[in-house]
Amino acid sequence: MPTDIEPLARHPKATRPGEKIGLHHSMCYGCGDEAPVGLRITVVAGEGVTTTATMKVEDWMQGGPGVIHGGVLSAAFDEVMGTTPLLLRKPVVTGHLAIDYAKPIPLGSTVHFTCEILGGVGRKIYTRAYAHLGDPDVLVAGAHALFIEIDLEKHFAGYRDKAVHAGE
Ligand SMILES: CCCCCCCCCCCC(=O)SCCNC(=O)CCNC(=O)[C@H](O)C(C)(C)COP(=O)(O)OP(=O)(O)OC[C@H]1O[C@@H](n2cnc3c(N)ncnc32)[C@H](O)[C@@H]1OP(=O)(O)O
């Protein structure tokens, strides 16, 4: 992470602390409520530029016997961290994502995520997140990521004809 990042302030019209941040879209693998397969993560705004989220570890998320697949956990971090810049009212995509896997996460457990925006420079937004299973003092994973602000319409312009919509 560069040393010249600046603090980023919450947008005055951002989702208020304690409220759910809206879906990226209904078919999003991370948050969509109509996706045929997906994590269905709801991200809740915290104070400042922080968020929280939870995810129940379902049987279909299994990697090693009895534990979550690392890629599923990575996707969950991506979703939570990629939603958090909406507190700045900035749409982003992931440029870089790194995960530290500290402990196995059993099927049936509930993963609690906390995320904060560390700052940014230009279109770059740096975030950090942690995960625990109920005891915030016992971390099971951590992550940091770089998100890049995009122009939504331009970024997805060449792909929208491939978009999948629920019920079609
Ligand atoms: C309907 C609702 C939908 C809502 C949609 C939102 C859904 C969110 C879902 C969760 C998030 C995801 O999974 S998103 C899906 C996964 N990610 C992607 O598909 C992104 C694919 N990559 C790209 O499209 C592109 O590489 C971009 C947009 C990230 C950047 O391209 P660009 O716009 O041409 O900009 P570029 O100049 O290259 O980069 C801008 C600055 O970032 C730096 N930068 C770029 N990538 C990196 C990197 N990996 N590591 C370090 N630095 C990087 C550059 O050096 C530069 O710094 P400087 O020169 O300014 O210093």
Descriptive keywords:
single chain, 168 residues, mainly beta, Thiol Ester Dehydrase, Chain A, six-stranded antiparallel sheet, 6 strands, 11% helix, binds dodecyl-COA
Q: Explain this structure to me?
A:
- Keywords: Apoptosis, Cell membrane, Cell projection, Cytoplasm, Fatty acid metabolism, Hydrolase, Lipid metabolism, Membrane, Transit peptide.
- It comes from Gordonia phthalatica.
- Residues 66-118 form the Thioesterase domain.
- Its EC number is 3.1.2.2.
- Strands 1-2-4-5-6-3 form a six-stranded antiparallel sheet, covered by helices on one side.
- The chain starts with 41 loop residues before the first strand and ends in a 13-residue tail after the last helix.
- The chain is mostly beta strands and 168 residues long.
- It has one domain (42-159): Roll (Thiol Ester Dehydrase, Chain A), CATH 3.10.129.10.
- Strand 1 and strand 2 (50-56) form a beta hairpin.
- The protein has two helices and six strands; from the N terminus they run ββαββββα.
- Helices cover 11% and strands 32% of the residues.
- Bound molecules: dodecyl-COA.
- Dodecyl-COA is lined by residues 24-25, 30, 78-79, 82, 91, 93-96, 122-124, 146, 148, 150, 152.
